[in-house]
Design brief:
383 residues, alpha/beta, 7-stranded mixed sheet, 6-stranded parallel sheet, 14 helices, 13 strands, 20% strand, globular
């Protein structure tokens, strides 16, 4: 059989790492990298920069096989003018991509609104089909008040219902989007992890180590509830520690832990590179996420790739992947259940097979597995 010719895929996204928010949409970037192993990928992201002294600035870089255009534009307090500048910046990036690499074969859009308006424009005026990958928790019932506004809802449904396919990262999110009136068929394609980087560690004897990494936003990640659980667990005594880190205000949580007398069992840290996260996981025994709502966080699949059992809440895509052999599931906000799960994890630490957990991650979340799924979908749509 003749091998398929590589396609030119335009990754369009409202979230993507940039100089203002270096970790924003890093899961989108990883999807782009997985596709770039099989196809030519151009990534386009537009973001406002209030520090700009010129109307627009174009930064083109090649990152891990993805030719990336970050377009920065000067914002405006006038909403209509701001929207016009946002759209103009997209058109500028589109023209540069066409000049540099030719017309794409397909648009792979990420995060429906507002950048999806440009995906719709490319379909109507340039004949380009598009798919949409969605990660936003705002569609979930537990995230009340996020998905609001009649104009936003109208545009979002319009974008979604003109896509060739929706690829949410969990079944739970697919159902939530359907409930919002998104009629386009869905195919679940998971977030991706760099399995060559996230590998099991071989640490020397040390306290049993629980690890939590997130944005540290309490309304979402329930850090306050987790600290109350740690305070309750501390009454048992024992040789263990919690490492809590992320790109939020970790100093405030560090002070809260000290006020609760937890400074001897809790260690805190700030934003980390992907390599630093991988190293942290090699030094841990279990990953903990006590979120009120989620889809499928990359940090969970990274923990699995590192062979760690995971304790998480029964929200989003978590129950789809966490079972007795690779972790424990508790209900959101159920602090008593989390205390019990932590106690059991310490007692039963030898029960979990890190190699089996990692094999699951390789099969479901690797660059090769996810890239292959997108490749098959692209060719079906273009056939």
């Amino acid at each position: 059989m003749k091998p398929k010719e590589p396609l030119h895929i335009l990754f369009l996204s409202g979230w993507y790492p940039n100089r203002i928010q270096p970790t924003l949409g890093n899961f989108v970037q990883k999807h782009a990298e997985s596709v770039a192993r099989l196809h030519s990928v151009s990534a386009l992201h537009v973001v406002s920069d209030p520090k700009l002294t010129v109307p627009v600035e174009v930064i083109k870089t090649d990152i891990r096989g993805v030719r990336t255009w970050n377009i920065y534009f000067r914002p405006s307090r006038n909403k209509l003018l701001h929207a016009a500048r946002y759209f103009h910046a997209h058109r500028l990036g589109w023209k540069q991509i066409r000049s540099d690499r030719g017309k794409p074969d397909l648009v792979h859009h990420n995060i429906l609104f507002p950048a999806g308006i440009f995906a719709l424009y490319l379909k109507w005026f340039h004949g380009l089909k598009y798919i949409v990958t969605e990660n936003w928790t705002g569609y979930l019932p537990a995230h009340k008040g996020a998905y609001t506004g009649p104009l936003r809802k109208w545009f979002t449904r319009l974008i979604a219902n003109h896509a060739e396919r929706l690829t949410p990262v969990s079944r739970d999110l697919a159902l939530a989007m359907k409930d919002h009136g998104f009629r386009t068929p869905s195919e679940i394609i998971y977030n991706v992890v760099e399995t060559s980087l996230f590998t099991p560690g071989k640490s020397p004897a040390r306290p049993f180590t629980f690890l939590h990494i997130s944005t540290l936003l309490d309304e979402h990640k329930n850090i306050s509830g987790m600290l109350r659980v740690i305070a309750e667990l501390k009454k048992d005594g024992g040789n263990y520690r919690f490492i809590i880190a992320g790109d939020g205000d970790y100093k405030a949580w560090e002070r809260r832990a000290e006020e609760s007398g937890l400074e001897d069992v809790c260690q805190f840290g700030g934003e980390m590179t992907t390599e630093e996260v991988a190293e942290r996981m090699k030094q841990a025994d279990c990953f903990v996420l006590f979120s009120n709502y989620e889809n499928l966080p990359c940090v969970v699949v990274e923990a699995m790739s590192a062979g760690l059992p995971v304790i998480a809440t029964r929200v989003g895509g978590m129950p789809e992947h966490i079972q007795e052999w690779n972790g424990k599931i508790v209900n959101a906000k159920d602090e008593a259940a989390l205390v019990s799960a932590l106690r059991e994890m310490i007692r039963e630490k030898d029960k979990y097979d890190s190699h089996r957990i990692r094999e699951y991650a390789l099969r479901e979340f690797s660059y090769e597995a996810v890239g292959k799924k997108f490749d098959e979908l692209y060719h079906r749509i273009l056939a």
